[in-house]
Design a protein that fits this description.
The chain is of the alpha+beta class and 167 residues long. Helices cover 37% and strands 16% of the residues.
């Protein structure tokens, strides 16, 4: 009798492996997309906290010098809706010896996970298919529940996407 040894996998074994890999991929891809959006939300929260902290820090530096005003803008008057410009880095009212608002600033891009200046003192943050507009208020603005104190950097809290970034 001939003794034949087979080295390899049967067709059934290969099909089963492909099916298992397909099931794993079907579960992993949506989880990856959700994880990416969560990461973009975390990045946005971190950016917002840094910007708010920088506004307060600059305000305290001004108070020490006797200036009671908040800075008048968060960028060096860059054009709205422009990609690849740096925002939150400097301000025309800052002297060359003053510290920058954020040490490195943030480069704009009209894409998810990025900031874009949309108008004077208005900045949009995109994450996933959502976007939230933040406004810098140099002076007290609004009234009642829509009141924004001077120096605040905030969004519309009735927007659920704003709540994701600020709570």
């Amino acid at each position: 009798m001939l003794n034949i040894r087979k080295n390899g996998f049967t067709m059934i074994e290969l099909v089963l492996v492909i099916v298992v890999l397909g099931i794993l991929a079907a579960v992993a891809v949506p989880k990856f997309a959700a994880t990416r959006t969560d990461a973009e939300i975390s990045k946005g929260r971190s950016d917002i906290a840094s910007i708010r902290s920088a506004i307060i820090s600059e305000r305290q530096s001004r108070l020490i010098k006797g200036d009671h005003n908040f800075i008048n803008r968060l960028d060096n008057d860059v054009d709205a809706n422009t990609n690849d410009v740096v925002i939150f880095d400097s301000n025309e009212s800052l002297s060359s010896t003053s510290p920058k608002i954020l040490m490195y600033g943030i480069t704009t891009k009209d894409a998810s996970g990025h900031w874009l200046k949309t108008d004077d003192n208005k900045y949009q943050y995109k994450f996933g298919d959502n976007s939230v507009v933040f406004t810098y208020y140099q002076n007290d603005s609004g009234s009642g529940s829509d009141f924004h104190p001077a120096g605040s950097f905030d969004c519309n809290h009735t927007d659920p996407n704003c709540k994701k970034l600020t709570h």
